[in-house]
Amino acid sequence: MRTFDFAPLLRSSIGFENINRLVDLATRGEGDSYPPYNIEKVGEDAYRISMATAGFTRDELELTAQDNVLIVTGRAEPSEGEPGREFLHRGIGKRAFERRFQLADTIRVTGAGYADGLLNIELVREVPEHKKPRTIAIDGQQPTLEAVNDRKAA
Question: Where is the SHSP domain (predicted)?
Fold first, then answer.
C-alpha cells in the first residue's frame, strides 16, 4: 500500500485550510532544503518563520512579498578575506538561495528581524469583516441573548 507524506507541504504553507492547494504543492515537490527553517505559531493569529542564515549579513538577505508569495533571497557575496587567513575546513555553508513560501489571502507579513544567524519573519492572519462568521436572522428576527447563551452552554 502506498502512503503519502504531507509534511513537506505543511512546512511551506501558512494559513491555508484548503487541502486542494496543499495537494497541488505536493505534486510539485519541495526541491532543495537550504537554508533550514522553522514555522511556528506564536499567537492566535500570529506566525513566525525562522531561517538559519549563518554567515549572511543583513545586506545579503532580501525579503519580497508579492501576490500571496513570500520570497526570501540570500546573495552569497564573495568575501574579500583577511590577509593570512587560510581555511583548512569550511563547514559553514554559505551559498546563494531563494526560498518561496505560499501564503493564504488572509496572511500578511508584518516585519522581520535578524539576530544570532536567524532571520525571523513575522506574519499575522487578518480576516476581513465580510469573511468572519456572522449570525443570520431567520424571518428577520435576530436571536435573543438568552437563546444564544443556551446554545453556547449546550
Answer: 28-141
